[in-house]
Design brief:
174 residues; mainly beta; five-stranded antiparallel β-sheet; four-stranded mixed β-sheet; elongated
């Protein structure tokens, strides 16, 4: 932490806030710090209020997109954090983990023209999926990590290929 652009006069005080991230929930044992200035360093007294670490109740969501032909797939939701897109490279792409508050959210997948879904699943037991529309209803619990995987195919290209093969075989019979 550095303080610049101002001064604190002798014998006066200022408040300093420091965001703390911890992997351990509970009350920290000893909190200490050293104040360093151009005039020297001094140990600071422990704060009068103990540092208490609480659990972040948010969950996380990761989207994985697999496809037989690269493209950009867009996801929209009422939760701003879930409004995102994935551009696949070599048939796959992902985004996340995205922090999402606890709650229930609808996510809609927008596919490039000619694509449809052949598989869709989420790693939790209470979210639901609609394969045809690409819609998800995500139920995010505290500290829950959900991964939803879409598999999409470029069906227009596959349909043209099947029809072309059929016509070629039929032509061979005539």
């Amino acid at each position: 932490i550095s303080f610049s652009g101002g001064t604190v006069s002798a014998s006066s005080t200022c408040a300093v806030s420091v965001p703390v991230t911890s992997t351990t929930v509970g009350t920290a044992g000893t909190v200490s710090a050293t104040l360093s200035t151009a005039l020297g360093s001094a140990a600071l007294p422990a704060p009068s209020t103990p540092l208490v670490v609480i659990v972040n109740p948010d969950g996380t969501v990761t989207f994985v997109q697999n496809t037989d032909e690269d493209g950009t797939f867009t996801f929209t939701s009422t939760a701003a954090a879930l409004n995102t897109s994935i551009t696949t490279t070599a048939g796959t792409g992902s985004v996340g983990p995205l922090d999402v508050p606890v709650g229930t959210y609808t996510v809609t997948q927008m596919r490039p023209a000619g694509f449809s879904n052949s598989a869709l699943s989420c790693s939790d037991s209470d979210s639901t999926v609609d394969l045809v529309s690409g819609n998800l209803t995500l139920v995010v619990g505290p500290s829950e990590a959900i991964t939803c995987t879409y598999t999409s195919s470029h069906t227009t290209a596959q349909t043209v290929e099947v029809i072309s093969d059929f016509l070629a075989r039929r032509n061979n019979l005539i």
